[in-house]
Amino acid sequence: MVVVDVHTHVYPPTFVELLRSRSSVPYIRTFPETGDVARMVILPGEDDPNTPSTARGRPVGPEYWDIAHKIAFMDTHKIDVSVISLANPWLDFLPSDEAGDAAQKINDDVNDQCSKYPGRLFAFGTLPLSAPIDVIVKEIERLSKMKYMRGIIMGTSGLGQGLDDLKLDPIYAALEKHSSLIFLHPHYGLPQSVYGPRTNEYGHVLPLAMGFPLETTIAVTRMLLSGVWDRFQNLNVLIAHSGGTLPFLAGRIESCISHDAHMKKEGKLEGRRPIWDIFKKNIYLDAVIYSEVGLKAAVEASGADRLLFGTDHPFFPPLEEEATQWESVSTNYSAIKTAFAQDDKAAKDVLGGNAVRILRLHE
Ligand code: URA
Ligand code: ZN
């Protein structure tokens, strides 16, 4: 049996340098009160001046950029292969004329990191989404020829207008043409106002537990509504965090669409592919949901053959410094074990077999 982690991040040294050179979000810096420990401030709202610097962002160390730490983490948690990806906010914040070169450097760095551990590391590349379309398409083509790349990771903002933007069509077309999987991952959450004035009292809980999955759910629903999968019937998307809340809400989404008089009048209901069809043909879900309940919804929606184990390392480390086993990892392992207690083959597929097949990791 092979265990493959498809949701595991790195910030390669080139990217870390970039964050260290910045003073607005996203940035990495030390504060007088935090001594030598640098803090990484990346999420919208994390830079609130009312938040003390010791609670701003998160402490970062080599586990975020040193690939040897990734391998040590894999060994501790019995993970054979990791498909590493740059974490949020990727290159979304870069000026248009800098994004293309930055993407090339970072993708080369990541591919190179994989080459140091043959058979243990593959990667999802990063796109220069603020660059002109032809630059983005060229990077998709370049990535499709790189030995360890197995698709791309991206957020929900697209070119700045979300994933239902028709200007994304050449990008979806290029990804479909090269059979490059999109690993869709949240970053922006929801508008700060929905978290209420006391949000800072609750650390990162509201943006991470609610903001992230709902952001993902809305982004994918907008793709569906704009007919992305009607135009690109072979476009494959691996959705983070077991699809946000999509498996749970899919029935409601379908019902709202089929009862919408405006969409009917505009002819948008004719010949459209229902979400259930897309779940089974175009969507893969990771198993980063930390409970059997969520996992079962994911299996019901897309099937045990489309579900893939992940950890979200290096995020969610244990709060007790001495712990070596990460509870965030063992919770996901246990959820898989319990959900598939009666089906050993399915458990093995979710843990690694599906990833090997879908991402062609034997090649
Ligand atoms: N927090 C983030 O900012 N990104 C992740 O992937 C997980 C937690
Ligand atoms: Zn993640």
Specify the number of helices: 13
Q: What proportion of the residues form beta strands (DSSP E)?
A: 5-15%
Question: CATH homologous superfamily - what is it?
Answer: Metal-dependent hydrolases
Question: Order of strands in the sheet with the most strands?
Answer: 1-5-6-7-8-9-10-11
What is the CATH architecture annotation? Alpha-Beta Barrel
How would you explain this protein's 3D organization?
With 363 residues, the protein is of the alpha/beta class. The chain has one domain: TIM Barrel (Alpha-Beta Barrel). It contains 13 helices and eleven strands. The strands form two sheets. Strands 1-5-6-7-8-9-10-11 form an eight-stranded parallel sheet. Strands 2-3-4 form a three-stranded antiparallel sheet. Zinc ion is lined by residues 7, 9, 87, 185, 240, 312.
Short description:
Belongs to the metallo-dependent hydrolases superfamily. By secondary structure, the protein is α/β, with parallel strands linked by helices.
Map the helices and strands.
Elements: E1 4-10, H1 13-20, E2 27-29, E3 38-41, E4 58-60, H2 67-76, E5 81-86, H3 96-115, E6 121-126, H4 133-144, E7 149-154, H5 169-177, E8 181-184, H6 205-225, H7 228-231, E9 237-239, H8 246-258, H9 261-265, H10 275-281, E10 283-286, H11 292-302, E11 307-308, H12 327-339, H13 344-358
Parallel strand pairs: 1-5, 5-6, 6-7, 7-8, 8-9, 9-10, 10-11
Antiparallel strand pairs: 2-3, 3-4
Helix pairs in contact: 3-4, 4-5, 8-11, 11-12
The chain binds uracil and zinc ion.
